[in-house]
Amino acid sequence: MKLEKVKEVVQVNSSFWKCCKYCSALKLSEDSVEEQINHYLRHGLKLLHVGTESSRSPEGEVWQSTVAVLGKE
Ligand SMILES: [Zn+2]
């Protein structure tokens, strides 16, 4: 897939609860990042990027999240 053909991107994050953008089947609070990615792949999206993101809690604690960006043509 060529990046310039991507019309829409979806980001999944292991730390945040989000519903599937395209259906109501996904309860992301219960699913791992892999399951979230696999779910979006089944909607025809392609994986563009996987990485980690550092966040900081209000208490100043740092934690790592796994993030993935998927694109739809
Ligand atoms: Zn879905």
What can you see in these coordinates?
This protein has 73 residues and is mostly beta strands. It has one domain (3-72). Helices cover 14% and strands 38% of the residues. It has one helix spanning 33-42; strands at 8-13, 46-56, 62-72. The structure holds zinc ion.
Rounded to the nearest angstrom, the distance between the terminal CA atoms is 8 Å
Separate helix tally: 1
What integer is the average pLDDT?
A: 86
Unreliable stretches covering 5 or more consecutive residues: none
Number of strands: 3
- Name the helix and strand elements from N-terminus to C-terminus, one letter apiece: EHEE
**What small molecules does this complex bind?**
zinc ion
Based on CA atoms alone, the radius of gyration comes out at 13 Å
Helix content: 10-25%
Give the strand content. 35-45%
Largest sheet strand order: 1-3-2
| Shape estimate | globular
- What structural class results from the helix and strand content? mainly beta
Largest sheet, strands/sense/barrel: 3 strands, antiparallel
Q: What is the number of independent domains?
A: 1
Would you spell out the secondary-structure blueprint of this structure?
Layout: E1 8-13, H1 33-42, E2 46-56, E3 62-72
Antiparallel strand pairs: 1-3, 2-3
